[in-house]
Amino acid sequence: MVRNRKRSINELLVSLFNHVMDMEAKAVITDEYSDITNNDMHIIEAIGMEEPRSMSVIARRLSVTVSTLTTNMNGLERKGYIKRQRSQEDKRVVYVILTDKGRKAFFHHRDFHKKMIKALVKDLSEEEMEILYRCLVNLGRFFDPEG
Fold first, then answer.
1. Which of 46-50, 99-103, 138-142 has the highest mean predicted lDDT (pLDDT)?
2. pLDDT bucket at 146, cuts 50 / 70 / 90
3. How far apart are CA 1 and CA 12, in angstroms?
4. Rounded CA separation 109/86 (Å)
5. Closest by alpha carbon to 26, among 45, 44, 41?
6. pLDDT at 145 over 70
7. Separation of alpha carbons 10 and 6, rounded Å
């Protein structure tokens, strides 16, 4: 029984992951944002509203290298979602800020996540929400044992 339940949980997690990625892309990459990818939206989210953020901090948040991130940033800057500026104190450091267009995309993406979480917890009691939270923390630790 436990073995079947664990198998079912695994199948559910895989299915949910695929559905979240697919639904997020469909919900977030609308006609207005057809010039960027879902990955670009996650970069915009990682930049966030607590601006400016350094390239190294953004890369760390996304678990990518700065050089990988630079390629994506070039496109986002060219399309008007971000601006980059060098630090006055240390010219090697590059900060990224969202433009008005980037902030609008940030809130658009955030709204999808708010709706998803609302759907997830809508019928849960406080106790069930706490259990779900602990399960997700455990899953997060599995994916990032150092974090």
1. 99-103
2. low
3. 16
4. 27
5. 41
6. no
7. 6
